[in-house]
Amino acid sequence: MALDDYVWAAGVATDLVNTAPEVWHGEDHLPDLGSLVAFADLHSIPTPAHASDLRAVHRLRATVRDLIDHPGRAGLITGASALTSPAGNVTLLPDSARWAVSLRPAATVTDALSLTCGVGVLGAVQTLGVERFRGCSAPTCQGAFIDTTRPGRRRYCMPGLCGNRVNVANHRARRSTLKHHNG
Questions:
Q1: What stretches of 5-71 show up as alpha helix (H) in DSSP?
Q2: Which pLDDT score is estimated for 172?
Q3: Crossing angle for the helix pair 33-42 and 109-127, nearest 10 degrees?
Q4: What is the pLDDT of residue 101?
Q5: What whole-number distance in Å separates Cα of residue 84 and Cα of residue 169?
Q6: Domain at 6-157, CATH class
């Protein structure tokens, strides 16, 4: 993993925390090993092998969510640094000036996700600042995210879902107001 690819890594961290039941009104989006395999495949993370991987990823998800929910610089750095402990060797990538880190041999899916989330959080803190760690602005959503957009104005954990829901609700409210005003 390239250490300067924090945008991708922060996206994985955001996706992971937004699989939690509190985001989906009680429905866990990582309920079983099969869903974890699909999540790992989607994010090019080593494939999980055991049911214990699922429990470990659920614990990691809670840890990363706690970091996003409490974005103090010192806490983010300490917490994210602990997440990078599964790292193996740090090196320069061949034919480039980019730093990279590899996982230890026999690393688990949780190790890979932990390292990825740690790099994402550390990169976002260093490059963008703690104000980029936010809760979703949708009134019915409990999601959280790390805003890595250039302007830093992202409002929703899942813009295609939460943003659309808010836009539809606002549109319906405007139509209702116009209908009552003109009626």
A1: 6-17, 33-42, 51-69
A2: 65
A3: 50
A4: 85
A5: 41
A6: mainly alpha
